[in-house]
Design goal:
333 residues, seven-stranded parallel beta sheet, binds flavin-adenine dinucleotide, alpha/beta, Rossmann fold, elongated, 17 strands, five-stranded parallel beta sheet
Length: 333
């Protein structure tokens, strides 16, 4: 796409269960920051069925224009139709900056769209900042498994990035804001798609979702076996929280992969994160360092996690967990 013809910041809004997903307020927040720095408009593309109220909500989050594709064929995310719509929108609107969430949708669609548009993609950004002389956006992301931070710019347009969840403060809502909702008619041609969804089932999540939990009890390799994770689950349950774990716990199949915390797992920001038998690798801490309070239980006083934790207990978790459980059971609910 022509460099000097490209204008505006645009993001793909995520519509789930008849409402806006949480990532939208974060995309609006970082999108607005870049749009202001560029002196350009912020737009969102909203694809789904029954989306009109959500379009208005996007405007209240700071979006100037919402391109709306409201079509029952788009009830669920599907790679090929989304790819077809998004590439057509990008060809027509020629945005300067294109943002997606680093979510299931963005991780699936981003590389496909970048390939289709023949542009670069910087995934999982934790910061975006405009470089004033060049008009390029400086995109910051963890590299080498989170051991260091890389800063990238993209020469072609749109400058495309996926934005990590919980990396930006959500944009506040202003219900008095005015904006434009533009219908973008798009007819799906099913014959042009190679894949067909034959069935869909929601993953079973008991209780609070990990990403939304205020309290997380997280276990690592130090827990030792799947059976002992049950004791951590008991603590999580008593505290009204959620269980999580390190990649080592997931690799050992003590926990399902959707409960992994870290750079290749979920990024969480609970009020309380209790890390038990976790060493505190940089890849794990990248997922939980935003927690307001971290309590670490580890038998090794030199464990890395004690450098990040607000409170630490140097002890075999098997000794300390039973009295903690007893005390927690007596707490008022
Ligand atoms: C590209 C890449 C991406 C990665 N992504 C992630 C990620 O998203 N999330 C993640 O977690 N990891 C990730 N990892 C792996 C990461 O580097 C570590 O290997 C992993 O986090 C270690 O898990 P752990 O702390 O449970 O295990 P360990 O490092 O083995 O630590 C176990 C800890 O338990 C303590 N312990 C043992 N027994 C007890 C006991 N009885 N009581 C108390 N303490 C005890 C030990 O002292 C030790 O500190 C990634 C690695 C790479 C290369």
């Amino acid at each position: 796409m022509e460099l000097n013809q490209s204008k505006g910041v645009i993001f793909l809004a995520e519509f789930r269960n008849q409402g806006l997903a949480e990532i939208n307020a974060e995309l609006a927040s970082v999108g607005l920051k870049i749009a202001r720095q560029l002196g350009e408009e912020l737009s969102a593309v909203l694809i789904g069925s029954g989306t009109t109220n959500s379009a208005q909500e996007l405007i209240s989050l700071g979006v100037d224009k919402v391109y709306l594709i409201d079509n029952p064929d788009f009830t669920r995310y599907r790679s090929e139709p989304y790819l077809a719509v998004m590439s057509q929108i990008c060809q027509e609107l020629q945005p300067n900056v294109l943002l997606l969430g680093h979510t299931e949708v963005g991780r699936d669609l981003g590389p496909r769209l970048a390939f289709r548009l023949n542009i670069g993609l910087v995934p999982n950004c934790i910061d975006l900042e405009m470089v004033s002389e060049s008009g390029n956006v400086q995109m910051t992301r963890p590299v080498y498994g989170g051991k260091t931070i890389g800063i990238f710019t993209v020469e072609n347009r749109p400058q495309m990035a996926t934005v990590g969840p919980k990396r930006f403060e959500p944009a506040p809502k202003d219900h008095t804001r005015q904006g434009e909702i533009i219908s973008f008619p798009y007819e799906i041609d099913e014959t042009s798609f190679k894949k067909k969804i034959v069935d869909f089932s929601e993953g079973c999540v008991e209780g609070v979702k990990l990403e939304d939990a205020e309290i997380i009890v997280s276990g690592g390799r130090g827990i030792g076996c799947a059976e002992d994770f049950e004791k951590l689950k008991e603590l999580a349950q008593i505290l009204g929280g959620c269980i999580g774990g390190s990649r080592a716990a997931v690799d050992n199949e003590w926990l399902p992969s959707n409960l992994q915390v870290g750079i290749t797992g979920k990024v969480v920001s609970p009020n309380l994160y209790i890390a038990i038998g976790i060493s505190g690798s940089i890849q794990h801490m990248a997922g939980c360092s935003a927690a307001k309070t971290i309590i670490a239980i580890n038998r090794d006083p030199e464990a890395q996690i004690f450098k990040m934790a607000h409170f630490g207990v140097v002890c075999d978790w098997r000794k300390i967990l039973p009295p903690i459980l007893e005390i927690c059971k007596t707490l008022p609910r």
